[in-house]
Design brief:
- It is globular and about 50 Å long.
- With about 300 residues, the chain is an alpha/beta fold.
- Helix 2 links the parallel strand 4 and strand 5.
- It folds into 2 domains: about 260 residues, Alpha-Beta Complex (Spore Coat Polysaccharide Biosynthesis Protein SpsA, Chain A), CATH 3.90.550.10; about 30 residues, no CATH class.
- Helices cover about 30% and strands about 20% of the residues.
- The strands form 4 sheets. Strands 1, 4, 5, 6, 8, 11, 12 and 13 form an 8-stranded mixed sheet that branches.
- Its cofactor is Mg(2+).
Length: about 300
């Protein structure tokens, strides 16, 4: 069974002074804390055992917000990353939690939404090899960039190249087999002193054990690392929810639709949230039939 890693550490320096007191993953994106969105992505993939990694300072806040996850039918454990030494370090921190299991790791400031997303995530979760995603962007220099040959086979993945070899960026969502922690331990610090996740992924590529799943135009990927990006994400989520009358990345709704909690548990979760309107939305789910695809 694949386990999940939600990386919510870092200093959020690109958002200073907003994040000088509280980490960005606890800031709101429209009507929910930012951390709800990547958490829901893991839940939609069918992952119910999740390790959240954060700074020691933020640990009590995350525990107060998320508890142990049992209210949503999942299990959340916590670990700390004292200093931001790279994404690959999270795989080393999580080694004891994983205990030989494959994993999916998602960055706490990455939001995904779109048609057939849940189906894509659950299908990817069933694949035994490592899988990363490709997403067409206008500014690939800011991301890990995937290079393809004429047969659409992956040739290379390069972190923030000055001259990108394609416009396909790699979002912060990675599915690994049970060798991820081992590969992370083989990585040496980069010039910026971090253990780069690209160096882990390239080991899978070198061993012919990497797949790339292209996310099409029907899927939105939002990175909320800057004030402008946060504002755009809030505007996007607000527009979708107001237009459709449906919430994006609502953990209570996902848990209920997937059978992780029952009607009584949903009512209990809704009660303290009635004044905000969020609770009323949860109660409205009791009379709703969920389609196969629920993003």
């Amino acid at each position: 069974m694949r386990k999940g890693i939600l990386l919510a550490g870092g200093l959020g320096t690109r958002l200073f002074p907003i994040t000088q007191v509280v980490c960005k993953q606890l800031l709101p994106v429209y009507d929910k804390p930012m951390v709800y969105y990547p958490l829901c992505t893991l839940m939609q993939a069918g992952i119910t055992e999740i390790l959240l990694i954060c700074t020691p300072t933020d640990l009590p806040l995350f525990k107060s917000l998320l508890h142990n996850g049992h209210q949503w039918g999942i299990n959340i454990e916590f670990a700390t990353q004292a200093k931001p030494k790279g994404l690959a370090q999270a795989l080393i921190i999580a080694e004891h939690f994983l205990n030989g299991s494959p994993c999916a790791m998602i960055l706490g400031d990455n939001l995904f939404y779109g048609h057939q997303l849940q189906h894509t995530l659950q299908s990817t979760n069933k694949i035994s090899s490592a899988t990363v995603f490709g997403y067409h962007v206008a500014n690939p220099q800011a991301y890990g960039v995937i290079e393809f040959d004429k047969h659409n086979q992956v040739l290379s993945i390069t972190e923030k190249p000055a001259k990108p070899k394609s416009n396909f960026a790699m979002p912060g969502l990675y599915f690994f087999d049970n060798k991820a922690s081992y590969y992370a331990k083989q990585v040496f610090p980069s010039e910026r002193g971090e253990l780069e996740i690209v160096d882990v992924i390239n080991q899978y590529l070198d061993n012919n054990n990497l797949q790339v799943n292209i996310l099409g135009r029907g899927t939105a990927w939002l990175d909320t690392g800057t004030p402008d990006a946060m504002a755009e994400a809030t505007q996007y989520i607000a527009a979708i929810e107001k237009r459709q009358g449906l919430k994006v990345s609502c953990p209570e709704e996902i848990a209920y639709s997937m059978g992780l909690i029952d009607q009584l548990q949903l009512k209990k979760l809704a009660k303290p949230l009635l004044k905000s309107g969020y609770g009323e939305y949860l109660l409205s789910l009791l009379n709703k039939n969920f389609p196969d695809e629920m993003d």
